[in-house]
Prior knowledge:
By secondary structure, the protein is of the alpha/beta class. It has 9 helices and 11 strands. The chain has a single domain (5-366), classed as 3-Layer(aba) Sandwich (Rossmann fold), CATH 3.40.50.1820. Mean pLDDT is 91; it is low at 1-24 and 370-374. The termini are far apart. The protein is globular. A hairpin with a 2-residue loop joins β10 and β11. The chain has helices at residues 5-11, 99-109, 135-150, 167-178, 193-199, 208-228, 247-256, 308-319, 356-366, and strands at 26-28, 54-62, 68-76, 83-89, 113-117, 155-165, 184-188, 230-232, 297-302, 328-330, 333-338.
Amino acid sequence: MKTPPALLALAATLPLAAFAQNPATETPAMKKDPTAALPLVQEWDKTFPLSDKVEHSKATFRNRYGIELAGDVYKPKGAEGRLAAVAVSGPFGAVKEQTSGLYAQHLAEAGFLAVAFDPSYTGESGGEPRRMASPDINTEDFLAAVDFLSTRDDVDPEKIGIVGICGWGGMAVNAAALDPRIKATVASTMYDMTKVTAEGYFGSEDSAGQRMEKRRAIAAQRTADYRAGTYKRAGGVVDPLPDDAPQFVKEYYAYYKTPRGYHKRSGNSNDGWNVVGCQSFLNMPLLAFANEIETPVLLVHGEKAHSRYFSEYAFEKMTGVAVKGESKKVGNKELLIVPGAVHCDLYDDVAGVIPHDRIAAFFQENLKQGTTTP
């Protein structure tokens, strides 16, 4: 069965497969126990070096759907007492050995206990079938990380924040709207996956007819997958890269498909998400209650990023104030625009523009950083 163009476009608002030319692959249907113990890689296999200022360990925790999640814990070397803590995840289709681990390590260098985790169905985390996504379950993954941190002896449960990167930025904002235990939230180079899935990039597919075309295509693919007993993959970042690829796809390639950011467990680095993997994003807007978030939120985005409008949209949802291309603060909600930066510049330290110090200062201010006695 040939995958309909509308379905490929839907699958890769993920955010890449609309431009993927990799042959679609098949992945087995669910056969494993999603609650089974996770086989975790113990050796260092990140895309960045281990800092000599932190201690690193592996951890697992379970979400309320019974899925076991895998995390990397970064702790300031020699720290004692109960620390402020931050849970980090993203980008969408990446693994904790890539961007989220880097952010977590920088936060640990700044004095926080930080956990970077793989969302359900990806990386080292559990959940079958693999490479599925859900606005509900993936928001829950953040809440499960808060459960995990809240019950650690070395964490102050009243000082917990979260960081969501790329597609997990929208999940983080949704989590902040849902769980008051989250005292501060950062969304970096964010995507609202429900907005881009339902509307296409820049509203290019924002009609009832175009959404229905996607619904019909994904319904047909579900039938085909069930009949075959497999899930068709949409393909990761296009490889080889065509000359006429959009600039932001070239930027994704430069990160995910080169030694700079490639990882063998990363969907974006390899064969991507299942074609039906993001079906529910069509009907479930993530930011519906963003205006009810009481706690501080910092949105960080590159000035030249194709995705900047997602952060501007989120800021307007939270504050009622429209902005375009400039930093703005309204109450305890802030949009920080990084001059000259593109989307993937905020994935690693190659360009040297991720405002790690500013992010740490945001958490220090809003989590009242400092150890407390047990």
